[in-house]
Amino acid sequence: MTIDLRSDTVTKPTKGMLDTMMQAKVGDDVFREDPTVNELEVRIAGMFGKSDALFFPSGTMANQTALKLHTNPGDQVICDKYAHIYNYESGGASFNSGVSCSLIDGNRGMFKAGQVLDAINPEAYYYSQTSLVEIENTTNKGGGACWELDEIKKIRTICDENNLGFHLDGARIWNALVAKNETTKQYGEIFDTISVCLSKGLGCPIGSVLVGDSEIMKQAIRIRKIFGGNMRQAGYLAAAGLYALDNHVERLAEDHKKAKEIGETLTKLSIIKTIEPIETNIVIFELNTDVNEDTFVQKLADKGIHIISMGSNKLRMVTHLDYTSTMHDKLLSTLRKVI
Ligand SMILES: *Cc1c(COP(=O)(O)O)cnc(C)c1O
């Protein structure tokens, strides 16, 4: 039995999902004639109370498109130092949109409205123009942390007062919604654009969606084309998304429960220095300095358990749809024996 906790992207489509995909009605989406893609876009736009949605092959492309929609070359984007758009999108912000990032030194990938205010450049012509604030919910490098809606609303007010766009990288927004008992509408009301992933916790093989109102979204399809993200009979993939929305959202609570139980077990191990608070499906922990990180990872790998390093002696485990109760029991008992 192999237990893969490197990411929630390692899941394979379930039988139910595959059956639904195979039965999908499809057409050429470049002509906007794929009924299943259209259905997914209408559904997700509606969920967030936005007029438009666009299906993307990856979350990176959806985020990069959003950056392009909100900015002009030379502009600056305010985001956390842990932001995916800054750390894990291959420098795309500068490559694709010619923008720089003003990084906020936040807490677990989250920051306060006051810090946004401080990060906005003055009007003077020799500064780069701040045009966008970007946040992530849940935060990836921040260990699956969830934002407080009240703080996000305060940031929205600052965006309004300073004429800034507001984008949410909602790759794991589903986890946040389930953990905090919030709704898609609450997020749609606040943000100009939101990207959501179907291929993380929801268990689809591919797919992200960008939502927003028609004014900002009207250029999105052109930018997606420039990025090479136009697809043809993508309905087979969109069908997986529709299936996941029906079947894989509420169950995220199980992933969260398992992650918390992993955390409780890790707390008892003498080789662990710290564990970040566990709110959703991500567990980030640090080993004592006398424990070699690579040796620890290898020791688990030898037992068929795969986890990843986040750098600076931090390790990460992510629970997901394919992480079963049997695997969970085995993991917990193996961890107790590693002491
Ligand atoms: C995974 C992820 C993305 C998108 O990644 P892709 O692999 O391109 O789909 C974006 N933001 C965050 C926070 C992520 O975790």
TrEMBL record:
One annotated GO molecular function: L-allo-threonine aldolase activity
Record-annotated Aromatic amino acid beta-eliminating lyase/threonine aldolase domain positions: 4-286
The keyword Lyase appears for this protein: yes
Keyword annotations of the record: Aminotransferase, Lyase, Pyridoxal phosphate, Transferase
Residues with the N6-(pyridoxal phosphate)lysine modification: K200
InterPro entries: ArAA_b-elim_lyase/Thr_aldolase, Low_specificity_L-TA-like, PyrdxlP-dep_Trfase, PyrdxlP-dep_Trfase_major, PyrdxlP-dep_Trfase_small
One example of a Gene Ontology biological process annotation: L-threonine catabolic process
Names of the cofactor(s): pyridoxal 5'-phosphate
GO annotation, cellular component aspect: cytosol
Family named by the database record: Belongs to the threonine aldolase family.
PANTHER family xrefs: L-THREONINE ALDOLASE, L-THREONINE ALDOLASE-RELATED
Name the record gives this protein: Aminotransferase class I/II-fold pyridoxal phosphate-dependent enzyme
